[in-house]
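User: I'm writing a short methods note and want a consistent example. For 60S ribosomal protein L29, I'll paste the sequence; you return only the structure tokens, no commentary, since I'll be parsing the reply automatically.
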Amino acid sequence: MYTLDLSKNHTNHNQISKAHRNGIKKPVRQRYPSQRGVDSKFLRNQRYAKKGSRLAYLKSKRQAAKSA
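Assistant:
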């Protein structure tokens, strides 16, 4: 009985070393990702919250200017 010499089909040798040689880097993300596809009720509330916090900031700024 003879055995056939089969060639190697696959190897992953040295691939990890090659990948880490210059470091595996994360993809750069946007600072403010798009709100597209986000729940509309949430976005509406977020808009009101931003407006309210902005008004409070302006009010406190005016009071600080008065007292100074």
